[in-house]
Each structure stands twice: as C-alpha cells, then as structure tokens.
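Field reference: sequence -> structure
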Amino acid sequence: MRSSNPVFSRRGFSRDNGYAGFNTAPQAGGAAVGTQGNPYAQQGGNPYATNPYAQQDAQHGAPPQAPARTGAMTMDDVVVRSAMTLGTVVVGAILAWALLPVSPGSYGLAIGAALVAMVLALVQSFKRKASPALILSYAAFEGVFLGVLSEMFNTQWSGAPFQAVLGTMAVSGATLLVYKAGWIRVTARYARIGMTIAIAFVLVMAVNLLLVVFGVAEDGGLRSMGPLGAIVGIFAILLGAFFLTLDFKQIEDGIAYGAPREEAWLAAFGLTMTLVWIYIEMLRLVAIFSGDD
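Structure field:
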C-alpha cells in the first residue's frame, strides 16, 4: 500500500519503485523482520549478506538492529530538509504578501504560481531520484500562491491566516502524538480504507467543481462558505491527518531500512505537500466560522 502523497506514491522510500512499508515493516523499538521486502538490502548468496542488520544479533537470537551506516537517512536529515523546504514556502509566502497587492493581477499570478508548483511536483514525483533544486523551486512557487491566497483571506477575514497556521500546527502535532503513542496503527487495511475514502473524496470534489463551473451548483456547491462547506472542510482536514500518518510511517520505515540520505528530500517534499493541504483547508474553515462572508 502506498501513501496518498504523490511523492511517496511514486517512490515510497524504495528502489525500482518498490515499497518498504506495510509488508515486512520494522517492529516497535527499531527491530526489523528479515530482509524480504527491504529494498535497501544488498543482494548476495550469503543469507546474511541480504540482511542490512548485524549477523551477530541473529546468531545470538537477539532482534536484529539497524546498523549505523554512512550515508543512510536519519531523522535529523528529515527534520533539516523539512525545515528548509517549509522555510522556503514561508519566505515565498511572506514576500508575496508584502510585495503583491490584493488585485486581479495578483490573483492571476497566484494561479500561475500554483500551476507551476503543481507541474514541478509532478515532475519530481516521476523522477527516480530527489532533486533538491526542483523541490525547493516547488516550495518557492507554492509559497507565492499561499502568500496571495492568505492575503486575500486576511483582507476579508482579518487574522484568518494566523489562525489557520495555528490550526495546522495543532492538527500536525496531535497527529504525531497519537501516532507515536501507538493509538493509530498504520496497517495495510488502515491504508486501503483511508485511500479508498480519499480517492472518493477527490472524485466527488472534482464533480462538484464541474457542476459549479457549468452553473448547476450555486455558491460553490459542497465547497460553499456555509455549514455544508464547513462539514466538507473538517472532513478534508481529517483526510490530511490521515495522509500524515502514512507519511510518518513511511519515514519511520525508510530510516529503519537504511534508506539513502537523499531520500530525506522526498520526505520533506511529501510532508510539505500534506501540510499545505491542511493549511488551505484550515484557512477556508476559519473563514467559514468567522461568519462574515
């Protein structure tokens, strides 16, 4: 099972587009089971040559532990790359907010930036290796889009962007807390059910958009600024939290399996896209609850 995230869907911290998680995923405490399903295990005739863990542990019956390998991805790598990518988004948003006035021209530029960011995201998702320049470029254009969008919302609903940022942080923090506490177990069944719901949601939103464009649905249809829009927004935020749990799981598995350090860029890229999803939905939700539409 793959993540909802386009980056993780393509790579999933694996070689040859395989997937390291949900099959023989590492167990709690960093132990791992065998090497079958580990895309980073080296090939060879020796049964322990295909195992990235120490032979000594297996001989003494102890749970094999992941070794400290040069060039392997660590949590610090993920944190640093995520900070760089999210920082680029924030800088781009601040510059766009400060330099671009609320005007039709700015809206057009924001839409253009969003389209460029989408294209860059798709290009990266189909690349076999992470491209830091491509990822940071995506983050910059995404930041421009979010900056103009946030300024537009702030003009009509004062303080909405700040509340949306706080809400995004709260959702992300709570999701990480329940994940690390083990209250949510990311299994193949969990991922299948969640992804089925997510795909159905995207399809329904696409149909809703077409109905709005052709004038069949008024006031945004399911995405209106009323109670129905609020329910849909809350559901979308919950989907964002679901995406985060898949992202956390795949990052955890990538580290345990000894994914190459450059894969940390993919982790940062994927997390950024998920957080942008949550922020946009939170921004709309704050505006709806402000009640001044």
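Note: The chain has nine helices and no strands.
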